[in-house]
Amino acid sequence: MEVILKPWPWYVSGPLIALVMAILVFFGKTFGMSSNLRTLCSIGGAGKYADFFRFDWKAQKWNLTVVLGAIIGGFIAVQFLSDGSAIDLNPETIADLNTLGFQNAGATLLPAEIYHWDSIMTFKGFSILVLAGFLVGFGTRYAGGCTSGHAITGLSNLQLPSLIAVIGFFIGGLLMTHFLLPLIF
Amino acid sequence: MKFLKFLFVGIFFGIILVKSEAVSWYRIFEMFKFQSFHMFGIIGSAVFLGILFLWIFRRFKVKSIEGNEIHLAPKDKSFARYIIGGTIFGLGWALAGACPGPMYILLGTGVSSMLLVIAAATLGTFVYGVLKNKLPH
């Protein structure tokens, strides 16, 4: 039990993620989390504004169910399957984050400097989260998939487009981490 | 009842991503700094095993539980949409520290502010849908 309560190493987590992908494929579906954002738009009536949202969203109910499960899974993992271990970050990472003004790096899953409501209630903090979410939602649909659809499923299926998309993910991620985050924080 | 199995897959997925710390903003930052093998190990081993799983499905002509031949639709051939869209996604991924899967999962871990990010991501998808025909693909 103690092994389960500790953070899981990459060589356990990675194969289990592949298993999730394989199970969904075996169920006749695919592993793609960002498609649900499009479904949410359709449910909200976005079909009035663009053809892109005029599709039978009810056929996507299975994927919304996966999302519901993922939310429950997140709850179970922190409530019952965690011993509160801090994230074992590289000391260099912690030092770099300190320089940027992040305290207690790794004590929780997310930095309070970005996700605590006190931070969000400022114009800057609010803008950061809205911009971040917007870029993810816009970019993932433009690229036709996110980490699950391209990096895991697409690469496993040896799709060149997915490799290009993943290279894009890294171009964007490296630009943000190395050049933009130091300007923002 | 046919949805129950998807609920369980989702729960399993949520637990794995929290326990692997892949939902952590800090782990994404560390990955883009190339300061740890952790995230590369997760993605790399997932892809390695994923290739193996899909190869087995194909090699042994495994049928899905719906009785159909397993077939993953190939992605449309293009360059622009993948590199531009991917870069935009990457900018958001490194800032939010979460991609769509982790956004939902983190909501479940009790991070209520993730609702704002999910709402913004839905808005981003909406704006893409409206502008779709004007963008290079």
UniProtKB/TrEMBL annotation, chain A:
Cell location: Cell inner membrane
Transmembrane keyword on record: yes
Domain of life from the UniProt record: Bacteria
Membrane topology note: Multi-pass membrane protein
Record-annotated membrane-spanning stretches: 12-28, 62-81, 125-143, 163-184
Keyword Cytoplasm carried by entry: no
Coiled-coil intervals, chain numbering: none
One cellular component (GO) term of this entry: plasma membrane
Alphabetical UniProt keywords: Cell inner membrane, Cell membrane, Membrane, Transmembrane, Transmembrane helix, Transport
Main location group: membrane
Family, similarity comment: Belongs to the TsuA/YedE (TC 9.B.102) family.
Protein name: YeeE/YedE family protein
Species of origin: Maribacter algarum
UniProtKB/TrEMBL annotation, chain B:
Source organism superkingdom: Bacteria
Entry's transmembrane regions: 38-58, 79-98, 104-131
Keyword Membrane: yes
Keyword Transmembrane applies: yes
Keyword terms, alphabetized: Membrane, Transmembrane, Transmembrane helix
A Pfam family recorded for this sequence: DUF6691
Protein name: YeeE/YedE family protein
